[in-house]
């Protein structure tokens, strides 16, 4: 609450906004002119497909007309999807905050902030990495008595609890050290790795020694798979909550306040809390959404921060002032009152120079999210997001905000009473997961939650400061990345088909621009079908000698195809470079979008259809945060990692070999018989040739490499047989 003595001082500065919103009008106008020219040529292409005669011999008329019709349908889809994709680019905005004004206006009298860090598996998400994230946010530039960090361990792991208990002890040294020496970043692992060449002070050397000792104890326990006996005695209150027969899917609620930083004038470390909610096999636990809702309830009885920050366990704080940046928007007296949450981008520390797997999604975070912000706000992406507690709990915009009393007063201390809030039966016959908290019923629970909040009248804001707020770990092999994208595309498509679909649920509640902005991502999965058909038919018709496009240079109809192909790709390259990427990085990005659309998104589409038919249920797949040493070395050298048998790789391998066979056959025919193919099928040569060049790392992995990261022989052989069979059938059709 505000102190009365500060009222006069704050009144002097009330006219100063805590943030401003900028626009780049000239660039937007130029892009609108460019997009209008592309749209004109798209319409020209549609006209060509409808009116141009099909030039082919009579024996193949039926087949070619069918292919022609499929090409028309796919090109209509591409055109309409391109229109949808323009919505985030027509009204972009940029937010700029003034943390100095926030300090002058509020000092340390800031609202309580609760930070939620979620983990689920100590093998895939190593405890040392998790506690580095916890320590980084515990050292945020924020009053420690107003800050609390909660670790939700959905794996119910004694190892994770032990790591957090050790980190709580180390935090008593680390947090004061960070604030005394203005350390950045505040993850001890990230900071001390920058000091590997030498320490600049005795204090730094001592902190490094203590951290190495803590890390050694945690990693030793992880390697041995057991907790030291002396640690069980030291942290006995916590370990005593584990039953002897407890498993990760069957255990009671475990709650331990490791550091209580709520009271006292000499607080140096914020409150640190470990929570593992109750899990029973007969009760659905709703994955990460259920974990978040349990944290919301439990924290409401311990610290009850008005603001909630949620992070994935690998997303450490890279900028200690990120909380103050977010508060500049949420506490602004004029524009901030309508903002429900502030979203930061998902950035990564382990990207290669050219971002081998396009994990950064650079254009999405540097261009599209700014456009979404201009249309009403970005999506909630499940990490790096500051929420108003009462909004995520169901408050509609315009309702009177119930001020939480923040004076040092009575806090519930009955642990068992608080534990009941995290029981697996607490939510029965309640509105949790429906009208309150994070929504259930979809793998993309974060997207649905953010959309539903906006449909209650709120907006969101996007902050992408030069110094990245939070930095995590990107997938380091192709299979991990594609599985992650499969889950995202499936979740986004389920949003489109759910009761919370932006198309019908958002009608009249959010603007058309924002509805189209959500559809950009919700249509990922269905976009796989036209991309797959277009690439396969173009190659097979090149093999068969069937022209699908106008003659190069000799036909006016070629102009729209040539313009759209050149202009769209040239703009894509310029946009990528403007976002800080490299030429090779753009090429990698094009390859990954091809792989996603022809594999991950297709499987996401199939999974969604199966779920709607009741054949399968939703599952939450955790992305691994660790890699083997040899695989990590290949990743650093930007050598693509395959190494596992997977239906995804079988599909990619088959498509890649099919493109190669078709191009090779067409070139042989061109050299030996018909030179006219260059004119009649020039664009087909270009498209198939580009697909082959994009697939070069795939061919290397299948045919040339001998390391452990190569494509498994069974996948290579099966892909070769399937592609050759398809080409043979078409050749004699």
From TrEMBL:
Q: GO annotations under biological process?
A: cell wall organization; cellulose biosynthetic process
Q: Which residues form the active site?
A: 154, 446
Instruction: Extract the coiled-coil ranges from the record.
Output: none
- Annotated membrane-spanning segments are 29-47, 67-85, 510-526, 556-578, 648-668, 680-699, 711-732
One Pfam match, given by its short name, reads Cellulose_synt
Question: Per the record, what is one GO cellular component?
Answer: membrane
Q: Where does UDP-alpha-D-glucose bind?
A: 125, 154
Keyword Signal attached: no
Annotated membrane topology is: Multi-pass membrane protein
The record's listing under InterPro entries reads: Cellulose_synth (IPR005150), Nucleotide-diphossugar_trans (IPR029044)
Keyword annotations for this protein? Cell wall biogenesis/degradation, Glycosyltransferase, Membrane, Transferase, Transmembrane, Transmembrane helix
* Cellular localisation: Endomembrane system
Top-rank taxon: Eukaryota
> Which residues of this UniProt protein bind Mn(2+)?
288, 312
Q: Which GO terms describe its molecular function?
A: cellulose synthase (UDP-forming) activity
Report the protein name in the record: Cellulose synthase-like protein E1
Q: Which organism is it from?
A: Brassica campestris
